[in-house]
Amino acid sequence: MNSEDRKEARNYAWNYFSLHSDQRLKGFNFFLILSGLFLGAFPAVKKIAPNTNLVAFLPLMLALIAFIFWRLDERTRRLVRNAEEAIKHLDNEWTLEDGTDGEPHCLKLFARDDFRMETLKRKWWAKTIVPISYTDCFNLAYLIVGGLGFVLGLWDLVT
What is the structure's pLDDT at 130? Predict the structure, then answer.
């Protein structure tokens, strides 16, 4: 691959990464806004129609929305990983010398981050820090909001 092809490939991979990582964050932000609206609307609707069980479908819908956004995030995360792998491949074509401790050169951004995360995971104190990645944080948010919606919905149906 000549330098012009390499530059074009890097541009393509970076634009792909940028698009999907931005899409992932925007999707998560939209999920948070939508969740806030559903959680805020539940007590108001409950107050308007206190004797109906149909209000329970509002938080149950929130649980469904959390599930849908979680699946969308999984798909978008795979697309982001595709771009990361392409950029790592292009980075490996460079003849940049890695550190003596095996840490990738500072211009190999994704490989360097992977190396540092693996090093951090081996530390005893890092095992107590949960969650540590975007994926872990997003999944925890989807679980909490979805679980809250499910519990609120069932609780409203039972009481």
Answer: 52
Q: 123 vs 99, which has greater pLDDT?
A: 99
Its pTM stands at 0.83
List, for residues 107-138, the tens digit of each pLDDT value.
999 999 889 888 877 776 666 665 578 898 99
State the SS3 of the chain: CCHHHHHHHHHHHHHHHHHHHHHHHHHHHHHHHHHHHHHHHHHHHHHHCCCCHHHHHHHHHHHHHHHHHHHHHHHHHHHHHHHHHHHHHHHHCCCCCCCCCCCCCCCCHHHHHHHHHHHHHCCCHHHHCCCCCHHHHHHHHHHHHHHHHHHHHHHHHHC
